[in-house]
Amino acid sequence: MTLDPRAKLLPTPAQLRIAAVLAQGRDTTEAAADLGLAPGTVSTTQSTANHRLGVRHRYAFIHACYVLNLLPRPVPAAPPTSGAEPHEVALLWRLALDDSHLEAATHCHLSMTALQRRLQSLRTRWNAANECHLITLGWAYGVLSASRGSAGHQLAPSATALPSARWTTQGVVLVSAYQAVSTKPSTAETAIDPTAREMSPPVLASALVTDTRGRILVLTHPQPSGGAAVSLPVVQSTGAHPPQAELANTLYSHFDVHPYQAKRLLAVDCEQWSPVLSVVCHLYLFGPLDEHQARRATQTPPPVTAQWLAPKDAIPLFPEAVVVRVRAAVDAWHSGSIAYLVGGRVQPGSPAGFQRGLRSFVEQSVAVDVDLYQAHRPKVLAEVNIVLTDPGGRALLLQPTSSRSELWELPGGGIDSDAGEGPREAAGRALRDQLGLDVPLGRLLAVDWSHGAPWLSRVAYVFRGVTLGEHDLARIRLVPHRNAAWRMVSVDDSAALVSEPLLRRLDACVTALWNNTGPLELTCGAPSHWAGPVTRSE
């Protein structure tokens, strides 16, 4: 049993054993010999490990392991007499943060020849075998540290324990700073760009942390004047790292929310706090957290308490100044889009955030603009399914690899409408991509509309596929990272394998197939009450 809820997101013990050997300067062949593995196994395993930590190069993976304490950090040691020149330190940091040699050369304004010459000089003076060994020695000599994080986990300098929450009149909690919102650039920012010394608007990054039950993480904290107030986790960006990275660091440090659970930007709001101060507010999506992670996230030290609430229960608890922003962010989460606000007001053209009545009012009162209209109208997900049967009438089902549940599905997928693809073309592509079969499609069996509120609604076009014989079944080739298995099952047997709406859809389509009726108009898999089957004469 996996005890650490982050275990599926972090490198496996086998991958870390390989990394520990590579960190000592061993190349692929030497590491394979030391571990009793084939060189190809070492390369493949390391490539997979890189993907888990979100980096491209093994030297950046070694640095990320030290940052996250996945490998024992090197014992501090005195550097060679000559040490490292400032330009060599800068170059070493570029590699640690996952730059390729070309990217590092471009950033340091060097030719590739000059870069290779400098790396060779540093390797010679430090007696390093390769770049992975350089990273390890950089940590040992104090040149590298966790101060800048890693390419996959950028960390912002912050306290290691949650300080006392600070309540402001604007209704935010700065969980990583004791002082009020500052308009002064950070020291790191001005060191990189002297022009940043000019006044710049502060950026607040807040998090909509979700769990698998659709709830959000809400903080409750005392106000100086007494009573309690509610907010989302919020940090003020220092400018040393992107706002989302600094927010991810705080969530990881204080709530055990792993950086890999950072998803996307939900909402942007610009507030005028005073005649001379505007604040930019970003709201990001994190999660969903499983049951164990959700429980750990609520174990915060006093005076702050954390709890999970349904969005409809949480939103009325927020200060009035942020209610609209949080509501718009929740809408953006559900609709797979983004909300744009100014002063806490959703702007025309915002893809998310409009309440139903307000959206209709805007459409009727504002001159029709195609761009704005298309932006804020609700979207629908379009997909296809293919019913492939064998001579016995059983249908083919697939077991997805990436699904959080154990449910099976019909072959099919989304329609790439932005690329000019139609339903029939999408169905043919799905058969080739998922099964390796290039077979003709039959007629349309049904169109199924699934209500999604508050999530996006879906419309599925279900096509008849060919009848699969033994030769066709033998030619099926699955893509392992997409589908784990396939099987032929009857409609009755599929009841234990598929979701209830898909069972209704499959039953209706197989019935239409054998009764030679359709196409059917379905709603959530069931025939619409006004739609009767149309008999076909083929």
Describe this protein's structure.
Keywords: Hydrolase, Magnesium. This is NUDIX domain-containing protein. It comes from Streptomyces melanogenes. This protein has 538 residues and is an alpha/beta fold. The protein is built from 18 helices and 18 strands. Helix 1 packs across helix 4. It is globular and about 85 Å long.
**Number of beta-strand segments:** 18
**Sheet of most strands:** 7 strands, mixed
Strand content: 15-25%
Give the distance, in angstroms, between the N- and C-terminal Cα atoms: 56 Å
- Could you tell me the radius of gyration in angstroms? 28 Å
Low-confidence blocks of residues: 1-8, 152-199, 531-538
Structure class: alpha/beta
Cofactor: Mg(2+)
Organism: Streptomyces melanogenes
Pfam families: NUDIX
Domain Nudix hydrolase: 378-511
Helix/strand layout:
Blueprint: H1 13-22, H2 28-35, H3 39-53, H4 58-67, H5 86-96, H6 101-107, H7 112-126, H8 131-140, E1 173-174, H9 187-192, E2 203-211, E3 216-222, E4 228-231, E5 233-236, H10 243-255, E6 262-274, E7 277-289, H11 291-297, E8 305-309, H12 311-314, H13 320-335, E9 339-342, E10 345-346, H14 356-365, H15 370-376, E11 380-389, E12 395-400, E13 412-414, H16 423-435, E14 444-450, E15 457-467, H17 470-474, E16 483-489, H18 500-515, E17 520-523, E18 526-527
Parallel strand pairs: 1-5, 2-7, 6-9, 11-15, 14-17
Antiparallel strand pairs: 2-5, 3-4, 3-8, 6-7, 9-10, 11-13, 12-16, 14-15, 17-18
Domain Nudix hydrolase: 378-511
Organism: Streptomyces melanogenes
Keywords: Hydrolase, Magnesium
